[in-house]
Amino acid sequence: MVDPRPEVIARRLAHVKKVIAVSSGKGGVGKSVVATTLALILNRRGFRVGLLDLDFTSPSTHLILGVDDLKPEEEKGIIPPLAHGLRYMSIIYYSVDEPAPLRGADISNAIIELFAVTQWGELDYLVVDMPPTISDAALDLIRLIRDVKFLLVTTPSMVAFETVRKLIMLLRSLKVPILGVVENMLVNQTDSIREKVWKLGVGYIGAISYDVELEHTFGNIQRLLDSQFAMAVDACASELE
Predict the structure, then answer these.
(1) For a 10 Å CB count at each end of the chain, is N or C smaller?
(2) CA-based Rg of the chain, rounded to a whole angstrom?
(3) Domains, the chain, ranges and CATH?
(4) What is the pLDDT of residues 66-95, one digit of tens each?
(5) How far, CA to CA in Å, does 203 sit from each of 27, 71, 150, 155, 167?
(6) What is the C-alpha to C-alpha distance for residues 98 and 207, in angstroms, rounded to an integer?
(7) Across-strand partners of 123?
């Protein structure tokens, strides 16, 4: 029997102009806060933006946004609620703040179902916070969403960059567009990661210095957007338009 959901997903996303998957290959590099801040900045620039948290193991964008009490509406599908101007959807709505015990085919099925039931409406950008591994989720997104583009996040750590390098190789083998690499949590100014990215023939979008005050902005959008971190993400966003 043919699964009708991929066709439904195409209709659901028919009026979404650009889909940006923010991915890293491993956790702890600040991927979720980059994705959230990027979505907020694009919205502040006047774009219609959606944010989707696909992290099945540890969703955190709701904490960054400070929207624990939001719930989607149901009307011929799921309508994402507005969160600080963003159409916001997260697996947290269904996992009740507990890790989703899903593996393999179950994760694929959950992703397909989430995209099939969600009504995004008209958006200029849909920013997707990906799970922090090279997983089936990335492959499903590539298979289900036409013209999805990946923005990769690393830190100066060689371990973090190695996972990003592998992700670049995977995306290239699948002929998936890569917007570039953002280097987060930079402490000492160095061109090491920049040069490694260039050698791979991928764009180096920009560097974001380590901000010791960043975590204190979570839940307070104005403080987040006023932070040095957000200023650096804003510069990166200029490279993506």
Answers:
(1) N
(2) 17
(3) 5-238 (3.40.50.300)
(4) 998 888 888 788 999 999 999 999 987 766
(5) 22, 37, 12, 15, 14
(6) 33
(7) 16
